[in-house]
């Protein structure tokens, strides 16, 4: 029976907005990780059949099917195709799902999944440019409310009774874990440095609750969501080389993990950010595993209340959640984030010898992907 395995995973360091990667065209940022995959595995790119590439703001420099132009920029054969996916923040996690489905169905033997976002060069919301992307009927269905992620995070904090102090404590811990990972070299094997950027730029050291408490709320005057407990606007790219176990053996490649289970869930698009909870339940139910079987969780830190509510609802071990920090510390280059989380996940699973890992992330429109990987 055909399966889908990950044999390599790389990412750029995640750079701050207007930081060290802001001078790099998103096509070239994408090409960099594609070349890194081929170099690290020794695989002839002619073996790769498709590149499935996540990107959220498909406008300006990120338009025109950046998945295909990235292939050409990488210098790969013209026979290698590329397609671009938008499932909002989960775009490159969805790319992994599409790649896995294609491999299992026999549509591919070797494929790359990943994504990119240069939020410095193509700002968030740039593609809408004042238009109404919802249409009249969606607005009418939700009483004229235009969903806002920041307000959704405030709604989660209120619903789950999360205080400003609790949320800020979670955020500080994200930075502390990311700093410890940098210091220990935990990220070294997954990074493909570019130019002078050798490490994730968003990690802040020496933060205190007093410093965070001084920040003004970003979305409500009396709210709890600030810049410090939200994900960072960032630039970056990440990519995973995927194939089947049989093809990997034929090519002399050693798989890291296989895609055990993939699931999707939808939820209220106004609160928007709660779908990782039903997506996780669905993935566990489909897999036949329990929450206690999972050794590590990567839950995207779009805003601190998202993984905090997820923890409360799933009963997962908090010590196994985002052990190397999350988007609050590392940044959130939208179209790249799903692949960035998965790259971090598979490297950690291999280093720690963890059999199962689960990744999930909230997405615009009240959606979420959930993926369970099994170490090989």
UniProtKB/TrEMBL annotation:
The active site is at 89 (acyl-thioester intermediate), 332 (proton acceptor), 362 (proton acceptor). The keyword Heme does not apply. It holds the Pfam family Thiolase_C. GO terms for molecular function: acetyl-CoA C-acyltransferase activity. SUPFAM superfamilies: Thiolase-like. Residues 254-374 form the Thiolase C-terminal domain. Gene3D superfamilies: 3.40.47.10. Its EC number is 2.3.1.16. Residues 5-244 form the Thiolase N-terminal domain. Keywords: Acyltransferase, Transferase. InterPro entries: Thiolase (IPR002155), Thiolase-like (IPR016039), Thiolase_C (IPR020617), Thiolase_CS (IPR020613), Thiolase_N (IPR020616). Belongs to the thiolase-like superfamily. Thiolase family. This is Acetyl-CoA C-acyltransferase.
